[in-house]
Write a structure and sequence with these properties.
Length: about 280
């Protein structure tokens, strides 16, 4: 059995300190949760904390981390990039493996989606299921040249004072030039393609499943992006469309995480985490 502990710090491969909360369960399965921008290991409306509590009731372990510059992290926000996001995920993944966890399911929320997906792609054969909630599926479409009004207002580039540009999301939250440069270089749709191709060609017949949960009324990350991926890669990507749901798992207008559709969405996610199968909703 895993040792039960709550608050901890994981030392990353590059020496970075990664604050985390671990909720114990059996050593058979654990969920590794990646939060989005402006978020932390609890996530908006305590979504990640709620998932962790439900998992604990089912005897499933959960590890949720703060990326650099977020939550309890002592690292500067300027150090947060897709590369360091993946590095922190890799460190957390290794920590769980060292504890003897048999199956690890990455779960990425919003901007945490690409980090979870890239971790899964890097560990094809070890990771069987990756789960994404309202995920960023294309850096260009969702952030660099966004196709939503929210995106256009949020990701307006401004000079960063050193010859580059940054995105200013609030008085204290900036996405720096290094992050933007990496967004331009990374192709997340190609990662879906690579996993699908691995599924088709793996000599041992191993399969990796990507399960997406996305609100049909998401004003931040368009639902169509997830829908198109499910159509293009039906043997790899499974999509659960969440009716009357905005970004994340919450029903339209629900600010207390208590509306009927919100609770249905949470139960659908839990059903998939517990069984590993596509839920009905």
């Amino acid at each position: 059995m895993l040792i039960r502990k709550k608050n901890l710090e994981i030392i990353g491969r590059d020496g970075a300190v990664i604050p985390a909360i671990f909720t114990g369960g059996s050593d058979r399965r654990a969920v590794l949760i990646a939060h989005g921008i402006c978020g932390d290991k609890n996530e908006w409306y305590d979504t990640s904390a709620r998932i962790a509590e439900r998992l604990e009731e089912k005897g499933i372990a959960c590890l949720r981390i703060d990326f650099r510059g977020h939550g309890d992290s002592r690292e500067p926000l300027s150090s947060f990039t897709p590369s360091t996001q993946l590095a922190d995920m890799e460190s957390a993944f290794s920590w769980l493996q060292e504890k003897g966890v048999g199956e690890i399911i990455p779960l990425g929320i919003s901007f945490g989606g690409p980090g979870a997906l890239r971790l899964a792609a890097a560990h094809f054969g070890e990771i069987r299921t990756c789960m994404l909630i309202a995920p960023v599926t294309d850096y260009r479409r969702n952030i660099l040249t966004p196709d939503t009004n929210w995106g256009k207002e949020t990701f307006a580039a401004i000079p960063d004072g050193s010859g580059g540009v940054c995105y200013r999301l609030s008085d204290t939250y900036f996405l720096g030039n290094a992050l933007i440069r990496e967004l331009r270089e990374l192709d997340i749709p190609a990662t879906f393609e690579r996993i699908s191709e691995q599924n088709r060609r793996d000599p041992e017949g191993r399969k990796q499943r990507i399960l997406i949960f996305h609100g049909e009324r998401d004003p931040k990350i368009v639902f169509d992006g997830s829908f198109d991926l499910a159509l293009k890669y039906p043997g790899t990507v499974g999509l659960t469309a969440l009716p009357d749901t905005v970004h994340g798992l919450t029903q339209t207008g629900d600010e207390t995480f208590s509306a009927p559709q919100t609770m249905k969405n949470l139960e659908a996610v839990m059903a998939a985490l517990v069984s590993g199968a596509d839920p009905e909703i």
